[in-house]
Amino acid sequence: MRAVARQRLIDSRLTPNVISLTGFALNILAAVLITQSLFVLAGLAFIVGSVMDALDGRYSRMSGKGTAFGAFLDSTLDRVEEGIVLAAVGYHFAALAQEGTVIAVVVAVLGSLMVSYTRARAEALGVECKVGLAQRPPRVAILGIGIVLGGVEVAGVSVLALSVYALALLTSATALQRVLHVRTALNEASV
Question: Which of 53, 106, 48, 102 is nearest to 40 (CA)?
């Protein structure tokens, strides 16, 4: 039964790019909902959109419908989606005049981009670089939980703010860890 359903899906006109673009649309919806402080709905849109992002690559491999451009589009949209959602989070905290949290959002965006960039650049140099705590799935989980619980406060601080602080710290640490990992790998290769 499951194999039949899988084969029907593969035989359908569904492409990995459609899945990627659906995830993108859901993340834009999440960003809009965040600006309206509709956190539970925003969190659900973000989580479903992020699941779509996880499925597009798997579907691409499973169906054989993947293309080089599709892989490029997928990874590009992943960065844009994370940036758009975090920009909406930044907007939310700016509207509340919480400058410290806005700064943490900027650090989280930069750290997130650097986590992805350091891996891509390392792999271009022939170094595998999947080290660090803040790879994409944990970032999605931290941000997703933060958004869903955005209206909840712990000791006077919103769960969303706490998730932003965690992302800022973890992405920065992961980017640094990757830089050190690549330096070590390249030094060992040159000996």
Answer: 48
pLDDT, tens digit, 9 for 90 and up, residues 28-62: 999 999 999 999 999 999 999 999 888 877 777 77
Residue with tokens 């690559």: 57
pTM (predicted TM-score): 0.88
Domains contained in the chain, CATH given: 2-190 (1.20.120.1760)
